[in-house]
Amino acid sequence: MPELRKDPVLGRWIIISKERSKRPTDFIIEEYKSSGGFCPLCPGNEKTTPNEVLVLGREPGLPSNSSRWQVRVVPNKFPALVIEGELEKEGEGLYDRMNGIGAHEVIVESPNHDDRFAFLPPEQMLLIFQAFRSRINDLSRDERFSYVMVFKNYGRAAGASLEHPHSQLVALPILPRMVTSELEGTLSYYKYKDRCIYCDIIRQEIQQDIRLVCQNDHYVTLTPFAPRSPFEMWILPKKHSSSFTDVNEESLQGLVDIFSESLQRLDLCIPNVPYNFVLHTQPLRSEPLEHYHWHFEIVPKLTSIAGFEWGSGFYINPMPPEDTCRYLKDAM
Question: Which residues are catalytic?
């Protein structure tokens, strides 16, 4: 029988359609084929992108926008929001509008065109997370911005338009609805129980060990109780923290280790599966929040959003998270 499950943070309902249950081998994944041709993100083509705003791992003494780098951050050539100008908020009757002010940047994750995030060397992945932290800190100084969203689209089905390994960030002048919903949900739980709901989730999942994929000294990876997609995973720090930018180098190394392991387990279950990951962290310039817990959410692109989902707000997931966790555990 199908099962309805409620997300404990957002109150969002998910339909677990067990009658449609699948094995990992039942999912049809488009074969990855490099298209070849010109790539603006490859070394030697730096002049075809906007001027870099951050570079890590370049040999000392070389000029800006030259080759021999390990991670490079540049403004998106076709940005969703632009950094120049003022917000100029105004109303039009009952409607509100403002200028599309923000920042949209591309984090080029490796100089090697065919690298895959899941299989990067640890030192390379560490540079990427350091770049995330550095850019959030830098953009937080701009009073126009309220939030920085960091995300990755891997695979054409997940929205990637360039093959070269990269992720993106967008600085926004307003809080996204997803963030405000999380903040409201976690605050409501905190007022009732005087505890962080994510800390309680971590404790329960470690104790039950039915949705716990893997863990190390600093982090856990779990399949959430009410997942939107088969093989959805959350990566959370064991120690309470509301801001990703507060993470130290030792903890960052733990994040690299568990991120690599989690994505490699996923790839062993469904090779080359398209996915998105998104960093969830507190708003810019906030004081530490006792009720909120930063984390990454990894959502494979294995189901389609159609009329029922758009009309109802429900997601239909053909695989219980306990089953996907078992597959992920057994993969390595």
Answer: 166
